[in-house]
Amino acid sequence: MSLIVLCPSDWRAVSNAIETRYRLSEELNSGRHVLERAGIEWFLQFYEDESQIAINEFEQTPKISTYLYAICAGPYQVFEDFDPMYVPQRIFVRQSLVEFLRHELMFGITKTTLEFYQRNFGARYPFTKVDHVMSPDYKYGAMENVGCITYSDEIMCSEKHMSIPKLTFFCVVIQHELCHMWFGNLVTMRWWNDLWLNEAFATSLSYKACSEGGPHVDPYRDEAWLHMSGYKRWGLAEDLMPSNHKIQAECPTTDTAESLIDGITYGKGSSLIKQLIFLMGWEVFCKGLQIYFKRYAWKNTELPDFIRCMQQGFDEARPDETLDLNDWSSKWLQTKGVNKHSAEFEQADGKFTKFVIRQEPCKNADAVFREQ
Predict the structure, then answer these.
(1) 177 catalytic residue (yes or no)
(2) What would you give as a GO molecular function for this chain, any one (predicted)?
């Protein structure tokens, strides 16, 4: 069994901006499961040198980025859920790990989560199926390939060992990857300096989806924001280091992109998306997202594109109020480091006579003073 991860440096084209429509043929030894992007158009078998070869031609996909292509093969046990009210789902797992898979829970979390995202993003799930593939020795926790999510099989655990924190993590990983079907797959960052447009949103909104509950998710909703606080601590710890960087980071090469898969992109970025939700209000925030997905579906974006959509959403929803999101972006997304606060006070006769809060940048931080 061979495992290759294309993202970010082993991709097949020079730039994400070169999005294209794919028509792929794969030659594989027969007897292996082939996970198609959107269905097999035709199937042909022939013999060559006494070796049976299976040729599968896949249907043409929508415009997708080159790093989102995946094909998985192996002697998997397959679980299916073809509920006519939802997108078809399948789970692929090694036979030796079947006892650790809670497939009904996984199907249920996916259904509840897709309903939440579709309702709030104003855009339907953009693909024709959801495949979940449990992968051994996987480099990342999971990867949001189009219609085919690959997971490290370490997220599975026998039912008797499934604590609430473990189940919350299991739930949020699924929700994180499903969120990428919009943030990353339907709309893709133009270059890796805006990786946060994928990862910060998928992290923050997966916890938001978990906190809202629903069928199969309710048991974990109380743990959601508590669990996310771990990401915030991760981001804070890395933002205090000399190696810190802006959320919208400099990224001259794909080799640099690997270093951006870190606590600042995920932890600090997701915390600032949560801040933006509370700054705008959830309904207004979603209005901005709906403008974003409608305007940029199957296209590439940069930070200014996102900010313009969110600003338009706020201005239309609250015409009598003022919020400068360009100012928010420049202070929070385009600077590095954190500030520290201290209190200075004077007292007389048991009472405070003077009280001053001081703000100053920590070491390795840009000298920026923030109000939000």
Answers:
(1) yes
(2) zinc ion binding
